[in-house]
């Protein structure tokens, strides 16, 4: 959104302009010096990512203490402390908060003189009948929050009838002034594709002109105050309105924001940057896409940033008339007026300021690096190298004076470069080799490291992938990257575990590494160790990897003693690698569990399905897909990888309904697939409460239908298969040489000895007996693809070359058929067991090429010796004559049981 001044009189403007123009001149000179630095982008191997804590419950904001302990808040009210020495997270307080809609314990900041006074500032929605949010401070002594020390700084009246937008971030500038962001706190669920400007009687809670665009309201703003000793605050110089409140509330620094969720303050020039989370609209922008813009804004001075009248680069939204259902006038960004009957402040507003960066659901014409899909823009810190003197992990000079922005849903971080006037110049990806799971806060510590809070996959949930992460950059000698590999993490006591650090990496190849382990207070040396855990419990295992120059990398893993994973086995007398049409697959599922003495057969799930592409097996297994989804892999893949997961999950309520509840609601409705596919593309609201569903205009209608078909399949009963059965293999009949069948069995135990329930599973994947030669697992031949003929095959076959296929079951296989093309002197194909010199099972001679130049493909058959079980198969090629190269080409191999 945008910024500038209220029209308050010539004298006021003269003061503001003169003070800022002088400041700008100083900043410009420093930026000119900074922009002369010519440093290359550091390579990604110089960053080490360390996960400090996982499984957090809606982390919001953090503060890094002088001793590098990390204090952070969780939305439902917990104040937690990560101890950098013990590497343990401890809950030090539980605030009594209202955590409905998007409220809760939202903001946290340390007093600039924390080392002396121990004040910690918290912003939260106060529990109880009165709807209000409070900014208060408390003393933190050691790891104890002193509740009796509370001093209330500021309280803001709110409404709790409708969702959404609480913001609530806190930060101090270099002068010790405290900033607080507040959301518009307006009904965002009944906008009908426009902005919430509902002026009908009794609809004031759905009118953003009553909050964001209201000079007499503290919501939809960034506030700027100086806390006082004993509580309360004073107004600093330089806010948007006079201190006497004659033109608007004097706490306001910027106004006209929807949800300024994350902001930062440039510690040198005082500029404020924030991400404003955008709406879902059906109004087209000047570029033809919907004006559903998220924004990154820059305030060089106080001002009005446009919402709800303007978005992006000051593009005006029509003032929608909710009574007549007709779009109305568009405001003039140079002279906007707030004439709403719900406005309690000034009608004349400052000129609207354009966003610095704006982007919608589709790829942005102006900022293409930002991608497409859902969005939640956030502004991180501006980095200055000289603010981290002698810091061991300070970033490269390349990033000096750059701003870091990030996106919660898209998971990227961008580095923003400014020109000599402090205006946006360009952006580039930062840490693009790291996948973040909903980054929600980003800060630098005094040692130069980057700390990141990751909210995790599901909204309003405790997430296993919600993390506190530390990222270290190192020039010169790099830290080793420690990695622990464990043969098993769960088991009964006593529990013998094999641990290895062999996968640890040091990008300085000549460094010599030393390995040590810390377990139960003991230190054990060596890259590989065995350790016997004798008592029940959950244990931390720490690996310390040191190089010979003193750099140290660490990794931590947990060992759970008290519950053994279930053992699931599928037995079958049929071939366990291939299927043949219309034959039977017999199977028996056997489950054993050490703690569950008696297996509840109803907890054993057996599923079976046909997959059109054999390579889809990996997708099914990796995603633990429901068998009913076997037919809808494309749709399930899109649902899993697009921004859908930000609002929906399978069976855990998030910001939107679960997929299973959607499936159950619409099951059996006529033509519902087309209706829902259209909704996926266009967005909408009203069917699950009034919360808006994001539009996805870049998705084709066919792809949207694939997604819908998958979701609808979730309520279809696939039929519970028995633990012992015979299944006719008939779905593949008439469908060519591809496709596979998957038999999957799983069991979740009941948990034991304080350890959570564990899953055991087994699967049997049957592939087509037509095996493409180019799909080999290992070999020393080449593959050529003929696009016009839609085929690929193996070439470059020379004497003693080979191709290998891993773990192929030869039970019942009686002969092989090869599709070959004679191009040279011919040769032999020897099938050998388990290695290139292993037992010979068959030998086929491929004749020399036709002397008349005819190079047709031929199918040649050879019998093989009877063999049972799975083996690695080596197809070894040998020459017949002195010609050793280009003997023949090989397309496919057919395994026959006849």
From TrEMBL:
InterPro entries: 6-blade_b-propeller_TolB-like, CBM6, Cellulose-bd_IV, Cyt_c-like_dom, Cyt_c-like_dom_sf, Cyt_c_ID, Galactose-bd-like_sf, Glc/Sorbosone_DH. Residues 189-211, 328-349 are annotated as: Disordered. Keywords: Electron transport, Heme, Iron, Metal-binding, Signal, Transport. SMART domains: CBD_IV (SM00606). Heme c binds at residues 644, 648, 693. Residues 623-715 form the Cytochrome c domain. One of its GO terms (molecular function) is carbohydrate binding. Residues 197-206 have a biased composition (Basic and acidic residues). PROSITE patterns: CBM6, CYTC. Residues 769-896 form the CBM6 domain. Binds 1 heme c group covalently per subunit. This is PKD domain-containing protein. The lineage of its organism: Bacteria, Pseudomonadati, Bacteroidota, Sphingobacteriia, Sphingobacteriales.
């Amino acid at each position: 959104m945008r910024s500038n001044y209220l029209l308050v009189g010539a004298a006021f403007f003269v003061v503001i302009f003169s003070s800022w123009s002088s400041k700008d001149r100083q900043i410009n000179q420093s930026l000119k010096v900074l922009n002369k630095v010519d440093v290359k982008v550091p390579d990604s191997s110089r960053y080490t990512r360390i996960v400090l804590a996982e499984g957090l419950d809606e982390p919001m904001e953090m503060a890094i203490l002088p001793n590098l302990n990390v204090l952070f808040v969780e939305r439902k009210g917990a104040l937690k402390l990560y101890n950098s020495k013990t590497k343990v997270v401890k809950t030090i307080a539980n605030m009594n908060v209202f955590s409905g809609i998007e409220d809760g314990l939202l903001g946290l900041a340390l007093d600039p003189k924390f080392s002396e006074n121990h004040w910690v500032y918290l912003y939260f929605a106060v529990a109880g009948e009165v709807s209000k949010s409070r900014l208060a401070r408390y003393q933190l002594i050691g790891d104890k929050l002193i509740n009796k020390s509370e001093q209330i700084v500021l309280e803001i009246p709110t409404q709790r009838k409708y969702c959404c937008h609480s913001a609530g971030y806190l930060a101090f500038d270099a002068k010790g002034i405290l900033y607080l962001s507040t959301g518009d706190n307006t009904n965002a669920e009944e906008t009908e594709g426009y902005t919430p400007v509902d002026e009908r009687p009794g609809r004031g809670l759905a009118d953003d002109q009553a909050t964001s665009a209201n000079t007499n309201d503290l919501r939809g703003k960034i506030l700027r105050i100086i806390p006082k000793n004993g509580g309360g605050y004073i107004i600093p110089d330089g806010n948007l309105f006079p201190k006497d409140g004659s033109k608007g509330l004097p706490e306001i620094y910027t106004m006209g924001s929807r949800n300024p969720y994350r902001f930062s303050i440039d510690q040198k020039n005082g500029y404020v940057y924030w991400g404003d989370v955008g709406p879902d609209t059906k109004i087209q922008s000047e570029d033809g896409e919907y004006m559903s813009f998220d924004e990154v804004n820059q305030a060089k001075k106080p001002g009005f940033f446009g919402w709800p009248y303007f978005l992006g680069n000051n593009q005006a939204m029509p003032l929608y008339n909710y009574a007549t259902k007709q779009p109305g006038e568009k405001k003039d960004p140079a002279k906007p007026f707030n004439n709403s009957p719900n406005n309690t402040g000034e009608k004349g507003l400052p000129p609207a300021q354009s966003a610095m960066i704006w982007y919608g659901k589709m790829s942005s014409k102006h900022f293409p690096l930002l991608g497409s899909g859902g969005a939640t823009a956030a502004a991180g810190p501006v980095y200055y190298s000289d603010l981290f003197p002698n810091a061991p992990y300070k970033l490269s000079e390349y990033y000096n004076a750059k701003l870091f922005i990030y996106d919660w849903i898209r998971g990227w971080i961008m580095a923003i470069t400014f020109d000599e006037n402090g205006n946006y110049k360009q952006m580039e990806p930062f840490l693009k080799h790291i996948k973040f799971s909903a980054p929600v806060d980003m800060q630098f510590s005094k040692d130069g490291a980057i700390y990141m809070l990751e909210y995790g996959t599901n909204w309003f949930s405790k997430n296993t992938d919600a993390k506190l992460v530390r990222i270290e950059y190192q020039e010169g000698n790099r830290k080793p990257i420690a990695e622990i590999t464990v043969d098993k993490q769960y088991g009964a006591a006593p529990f013998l575990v094999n641990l290895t650090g062999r996968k640890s990496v040091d990008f300085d190849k000549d460094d010599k590494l030393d390995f040590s382990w810390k377990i139960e207070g003991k230190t054990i040396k060596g890259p590989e160790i065995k350790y016997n855990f004798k008592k029940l419990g959950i244990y931390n295992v720490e690996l310390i990897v040191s190089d010979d120059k003193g750099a140290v990398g660490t990794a931590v893993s947990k060992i759970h003693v008290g519950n053994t994973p279930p053992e699931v086995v599928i037995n079958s007398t049929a071939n366990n690698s291939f299927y043949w049409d219309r034959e039977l697959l017999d199977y028996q599922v056997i489950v054993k569990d050490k703690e569950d003495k008696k297996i509840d057969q109803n907890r054993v799930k057996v599923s079976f399905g046909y997959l059109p592409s054999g390579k889809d097996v990996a997708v099914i297994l990796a995603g633990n897909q429901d068998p009913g989804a076997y037919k809808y892999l494309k749709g399930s893949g899109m649902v899993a990888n697009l921004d859908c997961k930000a609002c929906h999950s399978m069976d855990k309520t998030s910001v939107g309904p679960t997929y299973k509840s959607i499936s159950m609601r619409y099951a059996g409705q006529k033509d519902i697939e087309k209706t829902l596919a259209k909704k996926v593309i266009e967005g909408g609201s009203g069917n699950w409460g009034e919360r808006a569903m994001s539009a996805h205009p870049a998705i084709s209608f066919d792809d949207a239908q694939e997604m819908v078909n998958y979701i609808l399949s979730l309520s279809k009963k696939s039929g519970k298969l028995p633990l012992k059965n015979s299944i006719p293999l008939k779905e593949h009949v008439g469908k060519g040489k591809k496709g596979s069948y998957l038999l999957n069995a799983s069991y979740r135990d009941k948990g034991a000895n304080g350890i959570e329930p564990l899953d055991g599973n087994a699967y049997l994947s049957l592939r087509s007996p037509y095996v493409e030669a180019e799909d080999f697992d290992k070999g020393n031949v080449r593959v050529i693809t003929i696009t016009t003929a839609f085929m690929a095959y193996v070439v470059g076959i020379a004497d003693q070359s080979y191709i290998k296929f891993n773990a192929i079951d030869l039970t019942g296989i009686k002969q092989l058929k090869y599709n070959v093309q004679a191009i040279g002197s011919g040769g032999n194909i020897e099938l050998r067991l388990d290695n290139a010199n292993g037992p010979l099972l068959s030998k086929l001679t491929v004749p020399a090429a036709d002397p008349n130049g005819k190079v047709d493909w031929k199918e040649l058959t050879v019998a093989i010796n009877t063999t049972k079980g799975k083996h690695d198969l080596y197809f070894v090629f040998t020459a017949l004559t002195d010609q050793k190269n280009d003997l023949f080409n090989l397309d496919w191999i057919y395994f026959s049981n006849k």
